[in-house]
Write a structure and sequence with these properties.
Strand content: under 5%
Largest sheet: none
Radius of gyration: 14 Å
Number of strands: 0
Number of helices: 2
Distance between the termini: 36 Å
Shape: elongated
Structural class: mainly alpha
Number of domains: 1
Order of helices and strands: HH
């Protein structure tokens, strides 16, 4: 859990989360929907 008042920690947590999502690549469900 990260409070919004903890700016640097919040930024670091969100950045790590975004990097993990990018590493997963495109969703296979996206191609199936088209």
């Amino acid at each position: 859990w990260v409070s919004a008042s903890e700016g640097p920690k919040f930024r670091e947590t969100v950045t790590e989360f975004v990097e993990q999502i990018k590493a997963l690549g495109p969703s296979p469900l996206r191609d199936a929907a088209e």
